Description:
205 residues, alpha/beta, Helicase, Ruva Protein, domain 3, Dna Topoisomerase Vi A Subunit, Chain: A, domain 2, 2 domains, two-stranded antiparallel sheet, 45% helix, elongated
Amino acid sequence: MQLPSVLLENAVNEFAKLPGIGKKTALRLVLHLLKQDTGNVQLFSETIAKMRQEIKFCQRCCNISDGDICAICANSFRHQKTICVVENIRDVIAIESTQQFNGTYHVLGGLISPLDGIGPDQLNIESLVNRIQKEETEEIIFALNPNIQGDTTIYYIQKKLQPLNCTATTIARGISFGGELEYADEMTLARSLANRLPVQQYVKG
């Protein structure tokens, strides 16, 4: 793609680094910004820079947060002794959109996947076990993608939790095996949460 300006080309290349954004879409976005007032573009860039510099991760559940503790963990009206374990922050957003869960979360930051070189030590598993032990959690709900990596992660964590007095359940198979949690519709997610199963029954198939 031949562009008349190096500055324009540099901006297009930066936008094209975003997931799902090709060079043509990136060019359209950059040209749109060129039409905006300088103040609006500056506000846009400052907002993105401030987000990257100042956003934090909750010290309790590893969700994104503006402070040391996220708004969900700080909400006294939520059931603090119920933890929904998810792979990433997008899954928290997906479940929250159902408005069917009133507990807290724990973001693992990925799934165990030996083929990809991802082991338990690279995930937020130890902090989860310590949290359950410290807070005397009553129930942990595994809301992980129904695939081999998700099953492996559930099995590993369940083994770690055996000495603890904590009920472990998983969302029902309303989410198809091999599917992605973030792409499930809200009704499917809501029903999966409502019809969760004991982990022992889930792992045995």
